[in-house]
Amino acid sequence: MVELIAALVTELGCREPRSLAEQLATLADGAASRAMVLDEADYGRHAWAAAEILLDHSRPGTS
Q: How many CB atoms lie within 10 A of CB 7?
């Protein structure tokens, strides 16, 4: 999964794609785990918000 994500964020021109891919995979894994534990199917919305921030900060011209 990390390799796929790394390829996708590389296409987007993100800085440090491997590190970003690991972070995004961790978010996905964590959201899936929390959704199961809390029995809350839409828990992924929290990971989505965090992923948007990570992606925004990894694009060239951002900090």
A: 11
Which residues of the chain register pLDDT less than 70? 63
Contact of 9 with 20, CB cutoff 8 Å: yes
Residue burial 22-57, b: 16+ Cβ < 10 Å; e: rest: ebbbebbeebeeebeeeeeeebbeebeebbeeebee
> What does pTM read for this prediction?
0.85
DSSP track, 3-48: HHHHHHHHHTT-SSHHHHHHHHHHHHHHHHHHHHHHT-TTTHHHHH
